[in-house]
Amino acid sequence: MHSFHRIPLPSQMEKTSWLLVVILVVVLLGGAEGRKSRILDESSSYELEYKAISCRAHSASIKDFGGVGDGKTLNTKAFQEAVNQLSQYASDGGSQLIVPAGQWLTGSFNLTSHFTLFLQKDAVLLASQEINEWAVIDPLPSYGHGRDAAGGRYISLLFGTNLTDVIITGENGTIDGQGALWWQKFHSKKLKYTRPYLIELMHSDNIQISNLTLVNSPSWNIHPVYSSNIIIQGITILAPVKSPNTDGINPDSCTNIRLEDNYIVSGDDCVAVKSGWDEYGIKYGMPTSQLIIRRLTCISPYSAAIALGSEMSGGIQDVRAEDITAINTESGVRIKTAVGRGGFVKDVYVKGMTLHTMKWVFWMTGNYGSHADTHWDPNALPEIKRINYRDVVAENVSMAARLEGISGDPFTGICMSNVTISMAKKAKKYPWTCTDIEGITSGVQPTPCQLLPDQGPEKSEMCNFPTESLPIDNIEMQRCSYILNY
């Protein structure tokens, strides 16, 4: 148990059924494991305990830097000063910044290494709606182009680059992007730059993002890019299902990632795996690999539970998804690519999907389009192979699969086993559409297309899921315990 005195520093949904409610409660309770706090003395002391990849030797409150949690006072300078001051402890056990209960209005601020940002219960970071609070930075080199508009992009609310050992966590505190203003500007085509994300960490290593609620992001919610050794768990992400591009978690040109026990309701893909766009991603050449996705619950009527692409020009390899629940979601696992993308998506393993009310269970698209600019290479063909699905149950489905490879560049090595799909009353007449693909199936209902021949019921255990662990599974959480005197 660490005991700290305050460091002397300068003064300052659309409606869901009861089932969804139960799922949300379960996820939130699950995410709360290892977190507890209690007031020891109402005048000052506070016991805080949680699990993290690192514990910290120094602690301070945003109030120490003049922060005011009234929902009106702008705290950008207070947060940045806090981070800057606490960075001096990076080589002395690290530091944590506590955000207590309140409404903390802020613009973007940068994080530092060996640092924890901790949002206590009922703490809310409110993203400023003043556009001048958001600096404009260059487009990502693997994209070469903004997604909403050519050129730069607004910096994310929480941002960091070239960092190590960064933790953003809490007692289910909230980060509110107040995205409606941004969505309106996007729809009216009034944006000069790409909208900000809530959390973006670049060129960084050893990252934990956990036990938080993220709501109403202007665009993507969590975007680790060019980074490694990342754990994102116990996160609840909520956005209107018609909000534009509010992807949940987007690992992008990253290695060794573990996404666990996350609940996402969004207007775009719940998890979108990426690695750069067209000729820029090909040139940058940094794949996303060794990705684990476990116990994801997703609601996204217009997008996928898990999307691979469409920006995948640096490659995607060794993705392992299991225990995936999707409700009222357009598709389960979707591969999005096109001529000009180049790159690859291979060695994808999916086991244990439970799906209810879907447009498609399986969807692969080789004609996604949406190019960064006019300079894409028509000879840059993507390689899609060794895509494995097993143990899938789906009900109230409009169409079992839409599998569309590229003429002269078929998607190969598709494997499906032990799949039961119950079609909706008004389902499409033909449940499977298959072009330019190759693969096999076993124990799949309804009967797949001829390009996926049945190998017989004795092969129902094929499409093996890897048994060896990935390095990210060997990272263990420590129990961090503190007495905070505030």
Automatic annotation (TrEMBL):
Entry keyword annotation includes Magnesium: no
Domain of life: Eukaryota
Classification via InterPro entries: GH28_Enzymes, Glyco_hydro_28, PbH1, Pectin_lyas_fold, Pectin_lyase_fold/virulence
Residues annotated as signal peptide: 1-34
Keyword Hydrolase belongs to the record: yes
GO molecular function: polygalacturonase activity
GO biological process assignments: carbohydrate metabolic process
SUPFAM superfamilies: Pectin lyase-like
Entry keywords, A to Z: Glycosidase, Hydrolase, Signal
UniProt record similarity statement: Belongs to the glycosyl hydrolase 28 family.
Name used for this protein in its record: Polygalacturonase isoform X1
Organism: Nicotiana tabacum
